[in-house]
Amino acid sequence: MVTDPIADFLTRVRNAQMAGHRIVEIPASNLKKRITEILYNQGYILKYKFEDDSKQGVIKIALKYDVQTKQPAIQSLERISRPGLRTYAKPDEFRRVKSGLGIAILSTSKGVMTDKEAKLQNVGGEVLCYVY
Prior knowledge:
Blueprint: H1 5-19, E1 23-27, H2 30-41, E2 45-51, E3 58-63, E4 77-79, E5 88-89, E6 103-108, E7 111-114, H3 115-121, E8 125-131
Antiparallel strand pairs: 1-3, 2-3, 4-8, 5-8, 6-7, 6-8
């Protein structure tokens, strides 16, 4: 059993990129599916597919790399709020990630979204991770 499924998700993606893998498989949950959709919409992953098996399902993520330099599109995945230390922010307290080039993924009362979407909807929430 995993005590922090979001950290496990981020670690699996990070490890697959460091090993140069094209595809990574992650056990599915609704929160992980939403984070995957956000990463796809922001252009950090190539594509994804949700597969249903007899248990909880699997998320297959095709990782994105630069064609010439072979560098991954995601330079850093940083877990912010942890089970032992939850981190919350109001819309006016959002920190700019990598001078505005990265995104923060938040869990709000209106669902999981990026910091920019949360600011537009004027909602705060738990800061799950930073991606750049």
